[in-house]
Amino acid sequence: MMNLIRLLGTDAAQQLLANYREQEPLKGTRKERDFQPVCKLFLPWTSGTWLLSEMDDDYLAFGLADLGMGTPELGYVDLNEIWEVVGPGGLRVERDIHWAATKTLSAYATESRQLGYIKA
Predict the structure, then answer these.
(1) What is the reported pTM?
(2) I need a labelling partner for 39 at 20 to 30 A (CA). Which of 29, 77, 119, 120 fits?
(3) In this predicted model, what pLDDT tens digit does every residue of 37-78 receive, in sequence order?
(4) What is the CA radius of gyration of the chain?
(5) Containing H/E element for 83?
(6) Is 40 in contact with 49 (CB distance < 8 Å)?
(7) Neighbour count for residue 85 (Cβ, 10 Å)
(8) Helix, strand or coil, per DSSP, at residue 51
(9) End-to-end CA distance of the chain
(10) Cβ distance 87 to 46 under 8 Å?
C-alpha cells in the first residue's frame, strides 16, 4: 500500500524488509538477531507508540508496542490495521521523523517494562 510506504519512508521500509529477510531463517534459534528499531510510529491523539524492527511484504511488522495501558510488549502488528485508525480531524498514525534508535529492541523492551511506557 503506497500510503504505508509514504508513512514509513522508502529507506525505513527497505530496512524493515531487509531485517525481516535476515531474521526469518534465524527465528527460534540462538542466532536470532536483536536489531535496533528502524522507526517509531505513534498516534498523535493517544499514547499509542510502536518501535519497529522488521516487516514482511504484507506489512506485518515486529516491534515493541505501547498502547498506553502500562504494559508495553514485543510482538507483531499489522500496519494496515494501524493505518485504518482515524482520529479526531482525520488524524492517522504518524512516523516520528526526528527519532533515531540508540539501543536494541530488547533494551527498549526491558526499559519500557520497568517504566510502564516506551521512553524513546
Answers:
(1) 0.94
(2) 29
(3) 999 999 999 999 999 999 999 999 999 999 999 999 999 999
(4) 14
(5) helix 79-84
(6) yes
(7) 13
(8) strand
(9) 27
(10) yes
